[in-house]
Design brief:
With 76 residues, the protein is an alpha+beta fold. It is 18% helix and 18% strand. It binds zinc ion.
């Protein structure tokens, strides 16, 4: 198992380094994806949808739910 594996933020597509002492992402269990620290921090109010994000969600089989502001809710 490679402890220095990288993964990609589902929202901004930034490359994240994952390892024993370094974990730059948060797993969104409900979606089966990882998002970066910065996206996680800025999505307490939901994430503004983009065509790219909707496309990735469709590919991953995720149905978006929206909050009252029309932002996509990121499951906790
Ligand atoms: Zn991100």
């Amino acid at each position: 198992m490679d402890v220095h594996a990288t993964t990609e933020c589902f929202i901004c597509e930034k490359t994240l380094k994952m390892g024993h002492h370094r974990f730059e992402g948060f797993g969104i269990t409900d979606w089966g994806v990882t998002v970066c620290t910065s996206c996680k921090k800025h999505t307490t109010d939901g994430v503004v949808e983009t065509p790219e994000l909707l496309e990735r969600m469709r590919e991953a089989g995720i149905a978006p739910s929206y909050n009252s502001k029309g932002h996509i809710i990121i499951p906790r």
